[in-house]
Amino acid sequence: MSRVYVCSCFGVTEQQVKKHAADGACTPRQIASACKAGTDCGSCVRRIQAILGRGACPRRELADQGQPMLAELDEAA
After folding, report:
1. Which domain covers residue 62, as residue numbers?
2. CB–CB of 31/38 below 8 Å?
3. Which residue, 4, 34, 5, 33, is CA-closest to 19?
4. Contact 41, 47 (CB under 8 A)
5. Has residue 69 got a pLDDT over 50?
6. What are the residue boundaries of the BFD-like [2Fe-2S]-binding domain, all occurrences included (predicted)?
């Protein structure tokens, strides 16, 4: 199996970034909190943005459709 590394500094793969996005991390900062990618030299941040922009984040799709995100639903309750 071929691994495509997004972050060389911390050995984070594209698959790991997609998994964190599926778990709710929808910004490069949230990805960084989850796995440190983007926190050292920063050269992977644009790649992370590209991955997130390609629909890796289910919550982003809800926001794009004008539906409230889960956090907004919790605040309203």
Report:
1. 5-76
2. yes
3. 34
4. no
5. no
6. 5-53
Residue type, 14: E
User: Are 63 and 69 in contact, with CB atoms under 8 Å apart?
Assistant: yes
Q: Which residue is associated with the tokens 């991955």? A: 51
Task: Single out the residue of 13, 33, 14 nearest to residue 25, CA to CA.
Answer: 33
Nearest Cα neighbor of 31 from 52, 11, 60 is: 52
Pair of tokens at residue 1: 């199996």
Q: 22: Cβ–Cβ under 8 A, 6 or more apart, which residues? A: 56, 57, 58
How far CA 72 is from CA of 10, 48, 64, in Å, comes to 33, 25, 14
- Total number of domains in the chain: 1
pTM score, whole prediction: 0.69
- Encoded tokens for 20: 């964190």
Q: Tell me, what CATH number does 62's domain have?
A: 1.10.10.1100
Per-residue tokens: 22: 């599926």
